[in-house]
Design brief:
228 residues; five-stranded parallel β-sheet; Rossmann fold; Arc Repressor Mutant, subunit A
Length: 228
């Protein structure tokens, strides 16, 4: 079991000094809401290049959270994912970039890291991943939505349906719109995914989940909803 009294060791690999120091300050200021113990000190290390980061990862072993900037002066931060995973076996590895398309996000996930688009405004959310090697379903649904270019409202309908098999009326109440609006969202989802009905969309989503099962964490309710 992890010692909650030891500092939370965080490595930030980013050549943008101002941004890296800002993220470091945010980590040192925040405490996860779920943590009942007194505030836990963050021990943050910043490396501005692949070369320095590689030396740190090899020489200093254990980290709880590692942030890798995708674009560094001497290469792509993604090249460090495998080494970072060994240095944070019970922690979390994130890849940050200004822009990440759906294929890049899926590639990063497949390598065992979590893709994040800059700017990184809420480090508290990163701490929710600590100690987890897999992703929650909502992250995967966002990737599925990106692949099919769904709007935020359409993604919300899909995510809520994955949680529970709502009728149009029930969905309207959950997301606070009219029944007709929910029906329009589904019509647009069908058009964008090429599916003929809601069952076909959920089948596509289930197939997407199963193809990336090694990096996705489903609870029993979510798995049951997807299989309905």
């Amino acid at each position: 079991m992890e010692d909650r009294t030891e500092p939370r060791r965080i490595l930030i690999v980013d050549d943008h000094e101002v941004l890296a120091r800002s993220i470091a300050r945010n980590f040192m200021a925040v405490r996860p809401r779920a943590e009942a113990s007194p505030s836990r000190r963050a021990d943050v290390t910043i490396c501005p290049s692949l070369r320095q980061a590689e030396a740190r990862l090899v020489g200093n072993g254990h980290f709880h959270i590692i942030l890798l900037d995708k674009s560094l002066p001497d290469g792509d931060g993604r090249s460090l994912i495998k080494l970072a995973r060994r240095a944070a076996p019970e922690g979390s590895v994130f890849v940050l970039a200004g822009v990440l398309d759906a294929d890049e996000q899926l590639g990063i996930l497949a390598e065992g890291a979590v893709p994040l688009v800059k700017p990184l405004n809420d480090v508290a959310r990163l701490l929710e991943y600590e100690g987890r090697r897999q992703l929650a379903t909502e992250h995967v649904i966002r990737l599925f939505a990106d692949v099919h270019r769904l709007s935020p409202a359409q993604s919300r309908v899909l995510e809520e349906t994955a949680r529970s098999a709502y009728t149009l009326e029930e969905m309207a109440g959950v997301i606070g719109v009219s029944r007709a609006t929910v029906a329009t969202h589904w019509k647009n989802i069908f058009a964008k995914t090429g599916a003929r009905n809601q069952l076909a969309v959920m089948s596509m989503l289930l197939d997407f989940v199963q193809r990336h099962l090694s990096i996705i964490q489903l609870d029993d309710d979510e798995r049951s909803a997807l299989n309905q």
